[in-house]
Specification:
The chain has 367 residues and is mostly helical. The protein folds into 2 domains: 15-185, Up-down Bundle (Four Helix Bundle (Hemerythrin (Met), subunit A)), CATH 1.20.120; 199-360. Helices cover 81% and strands 0% of the residues. The protein has helices at residues 19-65, 69-109, 117-144, 156-183, 200-247, 251-291, 299-321, 323-326, 328-354, 358-366. The chain is globular, with a radius of gyration of 25 Å.
């Protein structure tokens, strides 16, 4: 079997305009921006949107009782717009954060992408641009619609989002080609890998992130086994009862079923949100552990930001679960937990910006 031609002289790769630094900085910025948008959405849109959905369903039951199919159609068209408004904002929030996670992962893989420095930088720029434009396009779908669009059913928001998705795909295909080159032993000088720093911050992020992911999986398994299927069956029962009450002109009964549906939807939503958020925060902590050598802050400040991030990562999903019992108070504390994570991310982002290349220089001297 032929040996892989990997050169011994690796080059430092966290310069001000390097692909790895661009991916780390862009990834952190995307995650922080996505979380900030999610916090704003939760405070100003999410709960109000849920109230509008309940009001629309009550109005629909009244229209059914009045035997007014036109009103029912209009109400559900309006409800569809309300759901689209919520859905596009949730999708924008999720896609921006996930693009940030993927950018951080690509930064870790850069030593194994056998492409020229200029091509790596081009792919990194392409990816960050796509990661930024994709959620913007998704966000605009509800507001722009199909106005002035060259297509009858696809608006400019969708066009921007789909084009950004194409940029991401092209960038990922380019990175995959570089990984294939590395696997085949092709390519020029390899980059240095992230230095193996054995600091408290790195160990805490790695172990804390692992614990968070484990807790998320355990909660998800418990919820699926104990409540999920029961709630799905209960949801169908409530919908049937709501329609039957409306058809029988039992408006108080129909309104009660709408309230039951709202409560059930809220119970499902908080469990799913807590499950997904704690796992996402765990993955984020694990990814952040690998870039700590390039966060140019003192160890004391690193510890403060790590503690803040891990504390917020626990507070947010915990108090999301408690929203059903304590209402907006728990929701406010959950938003505060999200803000703690955002502040810690911004602090680490500043540390990456302050990095002057001392670690790369020491690695180069060591060789």
């Amino acid at each position: 079997m032929a040996s892989r031609a990997i050169p011994s002289a690796a080059v430092p790769s966290f310069g001000p305009k390097s692909a790895r630094r661009l991916l780390v900085f862009g990834g952190l910025a995307l995650v922080a921006a996505g979380m900030l948008f999610g916090d704003i959405f939760a405070v100003f849109v999410l709960h109000q949107n849920a109230r509008l959905q309940g009001e629309a369903l009550i109005a629909a039951t009244r229209a059914v009782a009045a035997r007014n199919p036109t009103a029912v159609k209009d109400i559900f068209e309006h409800l569809g717009g309300t759901l689209e408004d919520r859905g596009t904002k949730v999708d924008a929030h999720v896609h921006m954060i996930d693009a940030g996670y993927l950018a951080l992962l690509l930064a870790l893989l850069q030593p194994f992408v056998a492409l020229s420095t200029s091509r790596k930088k081009f792919l990194a720029t392409l990816f960050i641009a796509g990661g930024l434009l994709l959620p913007i396009g998704i966000f605009l779908i509800h507001y722009v619609g199909v106005a002035y669009s060259p297509f009858p059913v696809i608006g400019w928001g969708s066009i921007v989002a789909d084009s950004a998705g194409a940029l991401l795909i092209i960038a990922l295909l380019g990175e995959a080609w570089g990984l294939w080159n590395y696997a085949c032993g092709r390519g020029s000088a390899a980059e240095t890998n992230f230095p193996q720093e054995d600091s408290w911050s790195r160990r805490s992020l790695l172990s804390g992130g692992t614990v968070l992911v484990l807790l998320g999986f355990l909660h998800g398994a418990w919820y699926a086994a104990a409540d999920l299927y029961r709630q799905e069956a209960q949801e169908a029962t409530i919908l049937h009862a709501m329609v039957d009450d409306a058809a029988a002109k039992n408006l108080p009964g129909a309104a009660n079923e709408v309230m039951n549906l709202d409560n059930l939807s809220g119970e499902k939503a908080v469990n799913i949100a807590a499950h997904s958020h704690i796992i996402e925060f765990g993955v984020l902590a694990i990814l952040l552990s690998f870039i700590q050598p390039y966060v140019f802050l003192s160890e004391d400040w690193k510890r403060r930001w790590v503690k803040l991030l891990l504390a917020g990562s626990l507070i947010l999903p915990l108090f999301v679960l408690l929203e059903l019992k304590f209402g907006l108070v728990a929701g406010g504390i959950a938003d505060l937990g999200g803000l703690m994570v955002i502040i810690a991310l911004i602090a680490m982002l500043v540390g990456v910006l302050r990095y002057s290349g001392s670690m790369d220089a020491s690695l180069g001297d060591g060789r």
